[in-house]
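Box 3.1 A note on notation
Throughout this textbook, protein chains are presented in two layers. The first layer is the amino acid sequence; the second is a token string describing backbone geometry. Keep the layers aligned when reading.
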Amino acid sequence: MHRFRISRRNLVAASMAISVGALTGLALAQDDRFPSKPIRLIVPFGAGGPTDGHLRVVAQQASSILGQTIVIENKPGANGTFGAAELARAQSDGYTLAVLPAAVYREPHLNKVAFDPLKLTYIIGMTDYTFGLAVKADAPWRNWEEFLADARKRPGKISIGAAGPIQTPSIVLGELTQKLAVDVNRVPYKGDSEQVNDILGGHIDAGVLSGVASAHIQGGRLRYLAMLTPKRVSQFPNVPTLRELGVNSVVESPYGIGAPEGLPEARVRVLHDAFKTALESPEGRKILEQLNQPLNYRSPKEFAQYAKDAFAREKIRMEHFQPPAGGRCSQGFC
């Protein structure tokens, strides 16, 4: 009887332990539900620009999928690298994300930065900016050839804006002027929205503008003289590319979403799937069409490989880089 009572007691204790263990495991599983609170998404450009406009639509769709609010935080400046810097010091829990533009792979070759682009988690590649050389609708140049001829006739008198000074549009603008041996006043901007205002206000003559120009072109306020794209874009099929005009200058500037290094694969998958669905949703496709940008999806693996390749390319490219000299700076940014 004594043995039976002990065995019974042990059996009850074991059963209780199993029950407690099961409940504890369930509680832990519930605590590990992701996401269980709002997610912070850093957009390293100002409100109103193409990146901000795109991510606000995508974030709204992804929020519905994830069941949590995605809060957009605009942090312009530092050539678009504030997001990467935030990721370098954030917890690797998936609640801090950032848009990673091409400048993230270039800046470390020029300045001391607080991040290593090869030590980030890459969630999803999303799209590329579509750039063209834009002028006011009533500008005196009817096409690229007239614009170039005037720039050569009046060295240093024509001003061209570009996001920069070391963002891709400014880099390509510098390479373009070197190839053509033309002297223009290159003006760096924090973003395209400020640049549009200065073109419309007559403060600069032209600008290397992304899809933010589309609404102004369709509204009859701006027009493109040439596209800095590999081929003509569907929204403006009558605008030739610089390549067609004999100048091999193209702005390739993709971006996507990243997270701190070491984010667990399960959380990467949750975030990737939500943002991919949002990116490819009717709303996601519509905003890309409005911005004149292609859907250029990259998986986490593909985006990480792109980052590795771009980082190596930019090291070589920056060995020949010449920053803008002189000129007026927008909002004190040079």
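The chain has a mean pLDDT of 87. Residues 230 and 250 are 6 Å apart (CA to CA).
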